[in-house]
Design goal:
- The protein has 287 residues and is an alpha/beta fold.
- It has helices at 8-12, 42-52, 64-73, 89-98, 117-129, 160-167, 175-189, 223-237, 241-263, 269-280, and strands at residues 2-5, 29-33, 57-63, 78-82, 105-108, 133-136, 154-156, 192-195, 199-203, 207-212.
- The protein has a single domain, classed as Ribokinase (UDP-N-acetylmuramoyl-L-alanine:D-glutamate ligase), CATH 3.40.1190.
- The chain contains 10 helices and 10 strands.
- It has a 10-stranded mixed beta sheet with strand order 1-10-9-8-7-6-5-2-3-4, with helices on both faces.
- Strand 3 (57-63), helix 3 (64-73) and strand 4 (78-82) form a beta-alpha-beta unit.
- Helix 2 packs parallel to helix 10 (269-280).
- It is globular and about 45 Å long.
Length: 287
């Protein structure tokens, strides 16, 4: 097992250069699916994070009740209404018919209300069948999804509680044991696991990256949604799930440190979004 502490020199290799003559769509198209009557902000954080990551197009699919506030927050988002207030089979089928043909990656689950697990499984399977790379978070992290995911380009991004729900075991406090548990579940399920915490642990079961943040201000709601958007944004440009997850968590951590330095323990996730372009500039390359 290879274990490495994430550093800028490593992450630079994971973020592809942009071609000087590239056209709209060449640098990634992302789909964000989330939101509910209560949690309208989560998919907005993810969508703006994906855009700030440098992708060309972001489609944001939210329940009808959330469409107006989502459109109001940013004209940069292309909003596709879910026909039902919760994720249903009917809503999934309608959504699949409305999606663009060229879709590189998607992130699913942030703030999402799921009417029935079958609708979530239908959505995930349909997107994987279209060769869409996936970042799964929050409501999408249920054990029933695991049989669909082996050896696909999929990243799961649980915090400790979601990790227990997904894999059946609570991550221990011991850092060493925590790392071993992430590695085992990543290998057993053929996926990339990104366990969020004071130290993020990212593993595909063969290689493991550690990202030590030391940013207690990032416990504020929405920072995980920002991370999910970054993972999807990175996946849109790099098919390697482990590299994309590692780059996303490193960038998210850098932005968190810069935001905490500016606002102390009073930052919000909107502040975090504003910091993303500044921390990503050193990784920009044009060829």
């Amino acid at each position: 097992m290879v274990r490495k502490l994430l550093q800028s020199t490593i992450v630079k290799k994971f973020i592809p250069a942009r071609k000087a003559k590239s056209r709209k769509g060449d640098n990634g198209t992302v789909l964000v699916i989330g939101g509910s009557y209560i949690y309208h902000g989560a998919p907005i954080f993810s969508s703006i994070a994906a855009l700030r990551c440098g992708v060309d197009l972001v489609y944001t699919s939210v329940p009808k009740i959330n469409v107006t506030p989502t459109r109001a927050i940013s004209p940069n988002l292309i909003v596709i209404p879910l026909v039902d207030q919760k994720l249903t089979r009917g809503a999934v089928n309608k959504l699949l018919g409305a999606l663009p043909h060229k879709l590189d990656s998607a992130t699913i689950g942030m703030g999402l209300a799921v009417q029935e697990r079958g609708s979530l499984l239908l959505l995930i399977k349909s997107l994987l069948d279209r060769d869409v790379r996936l970042s799964l978070d929050a409501s999408a992290l249920v054990p029933e999804v695991l049989p669909l995911l082996p050896d696909k380009n999929v990243v799961v991004t649980p915090h400790a509680g979601e990790f227990k729900r997904l894999f059946g075991t609570m991550p221990p406090d011991s850092k060493k044991d925590r790392i071993s548990l992430v590695e085992k579940n990543a290998k057993d399920n053929g996926i990339t696991v990104l366990l969020k915490g004071a130290t993020d642990i990212i593993s595909d079961g063969t290689t493991t990256y550690l990202n030590e943040k030391k940013t207690p201000a990032m416990t504020v709601g929405g920072t995980g949604d920002v991370l999910s958007g970054l993972v999807a944004g990175m996946l849109a440009k790099n098919r390697n799930a482990l590299e994309s997850a590692a780059a996303a968590t490193f960038i998210n951590g850098l932005a968190g440190k810069a935001t905490q330095k500016k606002f102390g323990l009073h930052m919000t996730s909107m502040d975090l979004l504003d910091e993303l372009p500044n921390v990503m500039k050193p990784f920009d390359r044009i060829v």
